[in-house]
From TrEMBL:
Signal peptide: 1-25
Transmembrane segment boundaries: none
One GO CC term on file: extracellular space
Name of the protein: Angiopoietin-4-like
Superkingdom of the source species: Eukaryota
SMART domains xref list: C1Q (SM00110)
Native source organism of the sequence: Branchiostoma floridae (Florida lancelet)
Gene3D superfamilies per record: 2.60.120.40
Pfam families from the UniProt entry: C1q
Coiled coil: 122-158
Subcellular location: Secreted
UniProt domain C1q: residue ranges: 225-362
Entries under PROSITE patterns matching the protein: C1Q
Length: 362
């Protein structure tokens, strides 16, 4: 807008200058006409008023006409017209150059605007490409999330089935333990009845036939005429991790099991002979795990052995004497939770032993 205003002002100046020069030339022509008229009137000596009729002198080289001021005025007019024409041409040239500069500037501005528009379009396309890439990544992540959700549902179903199977296995295990205890009790009763019947049969045969072995017949087991025997010593050769709920510690190596009162599978001692018993056990802790072991009598904890979650393996022992009645049960129990564990190898670092101190027959 500023450039247009400048062009208008320049053009107005040119028109004003041309108008001024034209007016000045017209004034001088009018003066020249008056002077020529006066000269003609004087030279021809005509009477009457002077008219504007131009009379050409007979002798063009008349000294009176050459020396008249009209020739000077005409010369000045030509010179002024030439100056005006030169100035007009110069202004026209400046205007033409300005117009060319203006056109060049407009062309450069148009080119810059085209370049800027092209750059903006390129950036817009780049942004569109980035947005499309982000949309593709989001879609891929959504698909991956859906796949992981499906996998998670499958794992949850597996966990539920595993927990259900674990519950069933625990129920079966408890049933098997109960059946083992029943079988052990029945076996013990059967042995006692068999020994009693054998003694009675021997007594009957001895009384009827008069036959007695040297030293006499051994007393029947039910009479407890001799000191009963009950002792065991077992070891575990593998490590064991805690679980929920707490579980009994089983043993896989038997050193002594006099009377068959100790069941290594579930690590349970079942009293066959009532009396006072001595028990002792040794445990080695696991690296970075707690060890909380309890000696349990009929579901009640009697003594415990405890170690912190130290990086070193620690071995500890615990002992106790208990008064047990017939069919009382004693076992070792590892506390619940995966942060509990005990360690053993083939060198038998976990042991459990017990024996009858004296029987209580009454």
């Amino acid at each position: 807008m500023l450039a247009v205003c400048k062009v208008v002002v320049l053009f107005s100046n040119i028109l004003l200058l041309v108008g001024q020069n034209s007016a000045r030339a017209q004034n001088r022509v009018d003066v020249l006409r008056g002077q020529q008229c006066t000269q003609v009137c004087n030279t021809q000596a005509q009477s009457g008023a002077c008219s504007y009729t131009f009379v050409v002198p007979k002798n063009e080289r008349d000294s009176s006409c050459q020396s008249s001021p009209s020739a000077q005025i005409l010369t000045e007019m030509k010179r002024d017209v030439k100056k005006t024409s030169d100035k007009t041409n110069r202004l026209r040239h400046q205007f033409s150059r300005y117009r060319e500069d203006r056109q060049l500037w407009s062309a450069n501005m148009h080119k810059d605007m085209v370049n800027a528009t092209a750059m903006m379009e390129i950036r817009s396309l780049e942004q569109d490409v980035k947005v499309k890439n982000l949309e593709i990544q989001l879609l891929n992540q959504t698909l991956e999330l859906e796949r992981l959700k499906g996998k998670n549902r499958e794992l949850e179903e597996v966990v539920v089935m595993s927990e259900f199977e674990l519950i069933q296995l625990r129920g079966v295990r408890q049933t098997v333990d109960h059946l083992n205890e029943v079988v052990t009790t029945l076996q013990t009763r059967l042995n006692e009845v068999s020994q009693l019947l054998t003694g009675q049969l021997q007594e009957m045969l001895g009384g009827q036939l008069g036959i007695r072995p040297p030293g006499g017949f051994p007393p029947p087991p039910g009479a407890f005429s001799a000191q009963p025997q009950s002792a065991f010593s077992a070891a575990r050769q593998t490590k064991m991790y805690g679980s929920i709920p707490p579980q009994r510690i089983g043993f896989d190596k038997i050193f002594v099991n006099e009377g068959g009162d100790f069941h290594s599978g579930n690590g349970t001692f079942v009293t066959r002979v009532p009396g006072v018993y001595f028990f002792t056990f040794t445990i080695q802790s696991y690296d970075g795990k707690f060890a909380n072991i309890a000696l349990v009598q009929n579901g009640k904890e009697q003594v415990t052995l405890y170690t912190e979650d130290d990086d070193r393996n620690i071995m500890q022992s615990q002992s106790i004497m208990l008064h047990l009645a017939t069919n009382d049960k004693v076992w070792l129990q590892l506390d619940g939770g995966t942060h509990h564990a005990i360690l053993s190898f083939h060198d038998n670092r976990i042991t459990f032993s017990g024996y009858l101190v004296y029987a209580k027959l009454s």
